[in-house]
Give the backbone structure.
Amino acid sequence: MSAFTVFQKTTFEYKWRRFLLNGMCLFTAHYETLQDKLAQLKDARDALNVLRDEHREKRRREQEELERLRQIQMAQKLEVLRQKKQVSVDEMSE
């Protein structure tokens, strides 16, 4: 094998390995980009879950407040009915 043939083979192998290495770098960059996008999606999902939880808690508090107001109204109506009944009983006993 001549020196020129060895040089050609070595040059070809070098170029081939550089080609493969460049391809691997491109794939690495592509997968790193995908990994970044996945991380962004996870962060967005976590933020959305926090917002959902906050909204759910707000709705629960609103429902509790409505129930409390309803109980107050019922107590007031009951008191009015008791007073009417008492007036009616007083009128009947006179």
Summary: The chain has one domain: 1-94. The mean pLDDT is 92. Residues 1-94 form one domain.
